[in-house]
Amino acid sequence: MTSLVLKRRALRIEQHPTIPLYVFTLAAEEVRQVADVARISRDEAGKLIGYQRPEKKQHVKQILEYLDGEEVLFPNGLIMALPSSVRFKSSPGPGSSDGLCTSGTLEIPLPDAPEAPRPAWIVDGQQRSLALARTRNTRLAVTIAGFVAEDLETQRDQFLRVNTVSPLPTNLVTELLPEVGTLLPTKLSARKLPSVLVEALNHDKDSPFRGLVRRPSTTAEQKADAVVTDNSLTTAIQESLNSPSGAFFPYKNLSNGTVDTATIRQILVVYWTAVRDTFPDAWGLPATRSRLMHGVGIRSMGRLMDRVMMAIDPASPHAVELARAELALIAPHCRWTQGRWPDLNTPWNELQNNPRHISTLSNYLLRIYVQEKAKAA
Predict the structure, then answer these.
(1) 197 shares a domain with 125
(2) Region 211-233 average pLDDT
(3) Which domain of life does the UniProt lineage start with (predicted)?
């Protein structure tokens, strides 16, 4: 049972009508008493928990070296998600508020055992918080901005927003987006649907990508099988959604902003199942052994999908068979695991996940497909 309470002078900022926001200070040694870091991972049912990236040891070391110095000025504060159990008591008298903020005392309940969960979560500044927990300057005053929100959705939403200046790893943002239900900035909103689809591909039983997609929450035990980066798949899907010639574009209703997600998912399952069946020796291998699983292969085959799947009804019972017949046209010309690519005169393992190589391989595959299609006609 919690019995300890930390009291700090604070300002309550009059900003959001239902989410209280407080600005206060903690001593460096108190940060670890108050807040934990919500590491991104998944529970046994596969549900995403947490949102923070792993510790960057070199970054933490550099901050710690500065904090351990003399005459430290550390204006870089932390942002915390506080529990609803915090209490704010405004200062007496009419001068305690100016309409924008109110001065008073914030009471934060603390755990009564060292191993007990902390009441708050670090939303921004986890590397700084780790350094603060280790500094010799234990009484260094640290600025804290704390908002009251116990639900992970609100915390993740704020985490994504406050980290737009110093960008988060793309794959971390990709995995978090499906878990955020609030209105997002346009740039992030455009990436949410592709991320949702990648999540489905990685978990659905009928998906050829099941268990093959590597995400920030992928455990060490799962990494041996997770050979495809989620960024490559997400970008391939986003390209098809945004291009008027993309296979997914017809399923966007531009008048009301809705998308036929179920059909798009079915197209992905049909096409990539056909890819797996066409290139069984290259499927499921690490990118170092198969360029099909590499970013350059995923992106290039994603562009070929736009041409192949335009004439195939994904709901047809013969859809996978039809897609396999189309891919058979290019199969003899592919060098995913050995040899040199014809015409390109490039060894299979020299193709890289960069714009020039993606464009080169995409154009080659499309050219061969069109040529062989014409011959078959």
Answers:
(1) no
(2) 81
(3) Bacteria
